[in-house]
Amino acid sequence: MTVSLTPGDLAPNTPHTRAARTAISIARTPAPAFVTHMAVLSGALRPNTFAAIRECLDAGVGRIEIDIHSLAGDDYIVTHDRRLERRTDAAGSVGAVTPDAVRAARFRHDPRDRPPLLSEVAALAAGGRTEIQLDLKDWRPLTRDRIDALLRAVAPVRERVIVSTGQDWNLRLLHAAEPALAIGFDPGLYIDTKAEGASVFLPRTTGAYGYRDDHPLAFGAIEPSAAYLEARMEALAQQAPAAREWFIDYRLVLQMLDDGFDVASWLRRRGIDANVWTLDAADDGARDAHGQLAAAGIARITTNTTPAWEQLLSALPA
C-alpha cells in the first residue's frame, strides 16, 4: 500500500516529525545529485581555477558551479571576488577591468596561474557532458553588451549552461534577451534563515515568523507559518517567472520543513527544480540534513565534498 502523504502534510512540532518526513518520501524520490561548488572536487586545488575546473571535467562530474562577473570588455571573469587585488597581483574592480588585464594578472599563491575567462572555460568544456552552473555575482543591471558578451562566451556549451543568481532583475534581463538560456533563482536576498555570519546582509530584519524577511507579511504573525511561507514563495516566483531551478540555502529549506512547508514539493508542482547550497559532509548534522533534503525531493546539493559524500552514502545500507 502506498501512503499518499507528502512531507508538507505533517504538522510542525510533533514528535518525530523529521524522521516521519524522511520515511514518507525516501522511497519515492531519487537521491539528490551533487554539484561541485566552485569546481572543488578533490579539495586539493584552489576553487574557481583552471586546475580545479579541469579536474572536474576530466572526472566527468554531472555539474560544476563557478562564479562569474562581467568585465569591461567582451568576456566574463571566473571569480568569487569583486576586486582583483584580493587574490592576484593586479588591482581594480573586476567590473571595470578588461579581459586583457585578467590575462595579464597572476595569482599571488601561484604566479604561473591566473583567473580564467568564461570563454576559456567554455572552450575547455566543449565536447563534454558536464553541466555548468554560472553563479552571476554582478549586481549591476546587465546592459545589452554585457548580455551579448555572456552569450558569446558560453556559445560552445550553451545547451549545458544555467545562470544562477539572487539578482532577479538580471534574470529577467537575460531571459528577455535570450529565452532559451536556462536561468535559476536564489531567493536569499528576500527571505533567508535566522543564521547569518556576515556583518552586512540582506534581508535586514528578522520577521515575526523567525525568518530574515523585510516584506510586510513578516511584520506580524497573523497566520500559520506555512501559509505565510507559501504566500512569500508565490510573490518571489513572480520576480523570476522564467527560472527553471531555484537555489536555496539548505538551512532555509530545513527551517521551512520544520514550519510545515515543503518548498521542494511546492516548486516541483510548478515544474521547477529545487536545489540547495552548500552542504558539506563534515558539517554538523550533515547526514541528517541530507536525509531530510532527499526525502523532500531536493534535486541537487551543492557541496565542496562530493567524494566524501559518495563514500559516506555508499556505506549506508541499501
Give a topology summary:
Blueprint: H1 17-25, E1 33-37, H2 50-59, E2 63-70, E3 76-78, H3 99-104, H4 118-125, E4 131-136, H5 144-153, E5 161-165, H6 168-177, E6 182-185, H7 225-239, E7 245-249, H8 250-258, H9 263-268, E8 273-277, H10 286-296, E9 300-303, H11 306-314
Parallel strand pairs: 1-2, 1-9, 2-4, 4-5, 5-6, 6-7, 7-8, 8-9
Antiparallel strand pairs: 2-3
Textual characterization of the structure:
The longest helix is centred in the last third of the chain and has 15 residues. The chain has eleven helices and nine strands. The protein has 318 residues and is α/β, with parallel strands linked by helices. An eight-stranded parallel barrel has the order 1-2-4-5-6-7-8-9. It folds into two domains: 124 residues, no CATH class; 152 residues, TIM Barrel, CATH 3.20.20.
In short:
The chain has about 325 residues and is α/β, with parallel strands linked by helices.
Features:
2 domains, 11 helices, 8-stranded parallel barrel, TIM Barrel, globular, 318 residues, single chain, 9 strands, alpha/beta
Compute the number of structural domains.
2
Mind telling me which CATH architecture of the largest domain this is?
Alpha-Beta Barrel
Oligomer: single chain
SSE-based structural type = alpha/beta
- List the helices and strands in order: HEHEEHHEHEHEHEHHEHEH
The tally of helices reads 11
Q: Biggest sheet, strands in spatial order?
A: 1-2-4-5-6-7-8-9
Low-confidence stretches: 1-28
Relative helix content? 25-40%
For the CA atoms, what is the radius of gyration?
20 Å
Based on Cα principal axes, name the global outline: globular
Give the biggest beta sheet: 8 strands, parallel, barrel
